[in-house]
Amino acid sequence: MVTTRRWQCLGMAGIGLALAGVTGCQTNVAGMTLPTGHYLEHRPQYFPPDPDFPLQRELNTQLTQHAAAAAAAPGIAGPLPPPVAPGAGAPLPAAGNIPSASTPGAAPPAPATPPPAAPPVPPPGR
């Protein structure tokens, strides 16, 4: 009975070792689980770079429609005018020419001087 039990244990150990050898193994390096090196046996594949706009046919359609609209009505297909501020149609005063609210008709305030530049910071660790 002891010899049969020993042969059964040795047989199971042999099957376990055979399966471990066939399936490959993983290793732990610096906390990462890495596969076996069999992936290095295959040749690398070439993946062409992606285009700037992934829907090339849609882009071509948009460009041809824009070109057709520009050819049909050249004044309409141009750039849009700048937006108009809401409220009265009077133009806004230029920067720095806004009169003081406390005294009507007073001269505009002097422009503020910029704050002094901060001194350079030395690199850390030195």
Would you kindly provide a written description of the structure presented here, covering whatever features stand out?
- It is a single chain.
- By secondary structure, this protein is mainly α.
- It is 31% helix and 5% strand.
- The chain has 2 helices and 2 strands.
- The chain has helices at residues 2-23, 56-72, and strands at residues 27-29, 32-34.
- Strands 1-2 form a two-stranded antiparallel sheet.
- It is elongated and about 115 Å long.
- It starts with a helix and ends in a 54-residue tail after the last helix.
- The mean pLDDT is 75.
In short:
By secondary structure, this protein is mainly alpha-helical. The chain is 31% helix and 5% strand. A hairpin with a 2-residue loop joins strand 1 (27-29) and strand 2.
SSE layout and pairing:
Layout: H1 2-23, E1 27-29, E2 32-34, H2 56-72
Antiparallel strand pairs: 1-2
> What is the overall silhouette?
elongated
Major sheet, described briefly?
A: 2 strands, antiparallel
Helical segment tally?
Answer: 2
Give me the strand/helix succession: HEEH
Features:
single chain, 126 residues, mainly alpha, two-stranded antiparallel sheet, 2 helices, 31% helix, elongated
